[in-house]
Amino acid sequence: xxxxxxxxxxxxxxxxxxxxxxxxxxxxxxxxxxxxxxxxxxxxxxxxxxxxxxxxxxxxxxxxxxxxxxxxxxxxxxxxxxxxxxxxxxxxxxxxxxxxxxxxxxxxxxxxxxxxxxxxxxxxxxxxxxxxxxxxxxxxxxxxxxxxxxxxxxxxxxxxxxxxxxxxxxxxxxxxxxxxxxxxxxxxxxxxxxxxxxxxxxxxxxxxxxxxxxxxxxxxxxxxxxxxxxxxxxxxxxxxxxxxxxxxxxxxxxxxxxxxxxxxxxxxxxxxxxxxxxxxxxxxxxxxxxxxxxxxxxxxxxxxxxxxxxxxxxxxxxxxxxxxxxxxxxxxxxxxxxxxxxxxxxxxxxxxxxxxxxxxxxxxxxxxxxxxxxxxxxxxxxxxxxxxxxxxxxxxxxxxxxxxxxxxxxxxxxxxxxxxxxxxxxxxxxxxxxxxxxxxxxxxxxxxxxxxxxxxxxxxxxxxxxxxxxxxxxxxxxxxxxxxxxxxxxxxxxxxxxxxxxxxxxxxxxxxxxxxxxxxxxxxxxxxxxxxxxxxxxxxxxxxxxxxxxxxxxxxxxxxxxxxxxxxxxxxxxxxxxxxxxxxxxxxxxxxxxxxxxxxxxxxxxxxxxxxxxxxxxxxxxxxxxxxxxxxxxxxxxxxxxxxxxxxxxxxxxxxxxxxxxxxxxxxxxxxxxxxxxxxxxxxxxxxxxxxxxxxxxxxxxxxxxxxxxxxxxxxxxxxxxxxxxxxxxxxxxxxxxxxxxxxxxxxxxxxxxxxxxxxxxxxxxxxxxxxxxxxxxxxxxxxxxxxxxxxxxxxxxxxxxxxxxxxxxxxxxxxxxxxxxxxxxxxxxxxxxxxxxxxxxxxxxxxxxxxxxxxxxxxxxxxxxxxxxxxxxxxxxxxxxxxxxxxxxxxxxxxxxxxxxxxxxxxxxxxxxxxxxxxxxxxxxxxxxxxxxxxxxxxxxxxxxxxxxxxxxxxxxxxxxxxxxxxxxxxxxxxxxxxxxxxxxxxxxxxxxxxxxxxxxxxxxxxxxxxxxxxxxxxxxxxxxxxxxxxxxxxxxxxxxxxxxxxxxxxxxxxxxxxxxxxxxxxxxxxxxxxxxxxxxxxxxxxxxxxxxxxxxxxxxxxxxxxxxxxxxxxxxxxxxxxxxxxxxxxxxxxxxxxxxxxxxxxxxxxxxxxxxxxxxxxxxxxxxxxxxxxxxxxxxxxxxxxxxxxxxxxxxxxxxxxxxxxxxxxxxxxxxxxxxxxxxxxxxxxxxxxxxxxxxxxxxxxxxxxxxxxxxxxxxxxxxxxxxxxxxxxxxxxxxxxxxxxxxxxxxxxxxxxxxxxxxxxxxxxxxxxxxxxxxxxxxxxxxxxxxxxxx
Length: 1338
Fold this sequence. Notes:
The protein is mainly beta. The chain has 6 helices and 94 strands.
């Protein structure tokens, strides 16, 4: 195994430079890089006073069981141990120590997909000596002055005495007798006096004179004795590969040695420079992508006393800038005169940003690199129509570089007037013509986010549909979908304003190439009907001309020839039209999916003792199953269970049970294809398996599938001419896959497979039918894909595209190896050939592995790569978790674990925006781990997963809840808020919510005290920190941050600071508005909060806002909160509190609420009637007008009267209905007494109806008179109708006699014409007329 040997040699190699760098890193307090865990190697002996007499080496894996262990000696000799079962540790027997087995030992353990890191080196010297211990430092915290340091000494043997020596001291400074093989020496409260060179030695407890060799010396250096340097870069922190870069590390002290490190690779990127100045330059002549990272520097003197570390400097080496994204707030659709902020963000720090507008060469605005933070944005104030356009942002560099600028996302800013946004566009998919039985999707689109779309149908004024995504599905049931449609929308910032309607779009009935078969069938049917009617008319015409018998036969012969020719011409026309039609899509008519048949038993060593056959269907609409024997024998019928399967118990297998079995599934209107046949041959013989494979291709891998019928069986593959099996596989389910790595001529031949029981003595099945493998010359495989994602929901539309550069080819579509559709070659157009196979509406049973091939007259192509079509929403959704967490440092790896419900499924990982799944995994358990290796910024995004079964049409689960993966070196900043408010009365409850964009990470809450930041309570996974029965101890300043439960080097930022104020401890203040509580937009307003104690801080609050609006600390008793140029959103209910500076956050009671109105007109009042709007006889109605403001005067207006009717200060108006003058529509308004010239808007009108007084009595008498007249008229009409009805029998008799005479005359004329030889006035005709007239029925 030369490859493995080379790998192990590299693992055991050591570098003095890397060791020195590691020691420097530990002494300077850097957190060590998390490496793969090393195994532990130690010695055991049954001779404690002379362990070299019999030595056994033990190797233990730290965190997992393993199937293989390896012992290395002197980097060349290897000893393997493969234990009988997976275990944590194994032993290697060395025996008595001699010169031949002395040397350097290490051990490894096997972990997929390779060997682990080797253990530490164990040096076995000559007999009579203890092994030399190893010595290293473990820093619990950075080894700065006052910190703790652990020094570890590993002695390889148990029950040893460990001694710690320091250079310059004759006696040991510390000793330990641990129970294991390692001692830990702790140095607490580190000081500069603790610096020095340390060694470690061991000896046996019973033999204190037998010492080991001293360990390698270790120098302990106390870091942080000098100030930290500054690290700068020239020309800039972002450069292209191949360009040069200078890093300058500058400190305050001359003559020091400077060191530069890259955090991502400390052991290999360690650079030193000793200068006579106080600075050092580190020059990169030709940058590489691998030089990207976080750099820092420090300096140290000749005694290795070091400085603090510099601030981290991020260096980017890239040929293309990462994309920036732009977001418009509050919305990309704004009204004229409003303000808009365009927030530009990107993953690159320390670079300025520039805002561009399409059509303009120069940037619109700039943002300097030093002024950019999380809240910095581009601002467009008081926008006008000229600000409408498409905006983008780019990085702004102040140095020259060859980095390419990528395309950026854009934001289209739309400035609308005060009325309606611009109209959208409306389109139809797939066309504006209905296809029989198919629906049309109308798509309403705009270029900016909207709140809701609305669809209107002009032919039906009451028709209206709403949609969030702008898609509307229109069906044409009974032809009721045709017509003219238009759409509109509304945006979130103006939810009450709908846009202009789109241009109208007309939908028409079935026509066009998409429904050509339907049109053709209708034309043929209509043609046949017309021909049949024409033939019938001809026959009737011949009967009418029955007197011309001499030309009757010739005429009928000519008519028959004409009709035949008409049929022929119609058929030719139809064939010609069908031949000239080129169908772009071939609709796949999916058959009822084939069920699966298998056997189960509770006697795995003798299955024939109790056998049960199971039948399962991939279709969720299956009603029942039928089991057949030998193709015709009806065994039984079983209803389908919830798992869409049924059991057929056979019991103990006898001779009568032998035969071939298969099953069908029944649906509403269809029966499925039969399952694959299961053949039972008798007792002691397993059912015969089935072998299959795709066509072999020279030089490529080939898989042979052997399908058994029982689970837990072993499989064997045989080749004709060889008695021993070619390959064997253990119990892997009901089927196995044998692999031929590279198909060559020698692999051709007939293959078969057999199954057997897992335990000896084996019970074998009969061999399967032979499968012949012959390599044939083929065209190259076609390009096969789906137009959308192959993971679809039921009812979705799927199109398969199979193409090849060869011309005039025919195509075949396969599902799970069976042909389901084909496309004939087309000679219409030269060039590449392609076929599109369409599934209009995917069902649960349509999932599976699809592939395609193309062929010419005699040559076939290789099969295409398969496409796994997965139909979801059949099984419960899985859960997706990230390990160690959802926030990953760039360049690191993360594992996404998809946890399903059922075992033996296949899992797929999907990323939002990707057309095909990223990874697939087939597992035997119920979870799969997907490794994202060395992630970058492009790997950030939402991930989800599914699981599905491969044996039953790829029926899949629901998609998991999306999991957001962040690839960043710094956690995004969370925000802290209080609910219901950060100003809380004493004794009430409040919840502090810590929120951030990263999910799946806990939070921790801090409270700021006078001396330090202290933890408040425990951590929270959902970000909720409840504080019940709030008291004075709870008030103060709070902040929060993410609290990941895994070790990571990602920096964590604190949230905003929240001041929790407790009220109810001081007298309440008063709050006034100047000039008044109602002002016009654009005017200034001052809110005056008057307290009762001096030296106070005043806080202004607004109802509905969780945080205080403003805080002031005036010199007197009053705070003036100035509100310049107020707007409509400043309206609301305000209050204020105050607290003393000597007792911060212990605030007063709330002031009385003050409602502020910002409007040109006061809001309209409400108008109501008491006791109701209907006048009663002699009763009055009181109209009550109510407004939201105090100190007003109300006025009541009556429609039809020019002058106001009444005035009132309390808003009550008494209305009577004398002479009917009280009926009508009323409205009211009011004005402020402080502003008598400003009237509010009128209220909604209120109608008073009813009647009262003398007028009402007159109306009642009139109604009675009119009703009496109506009754008289109705009675008179009834009398007239009765008289006429009595005359009706006589009229009916007369009419019957007349009809009889008419019929007699008609029959007489017909008889006369039928007998030309009889005179019209002959007696016979008269007698015949009399005889005919008598029996005529009436």
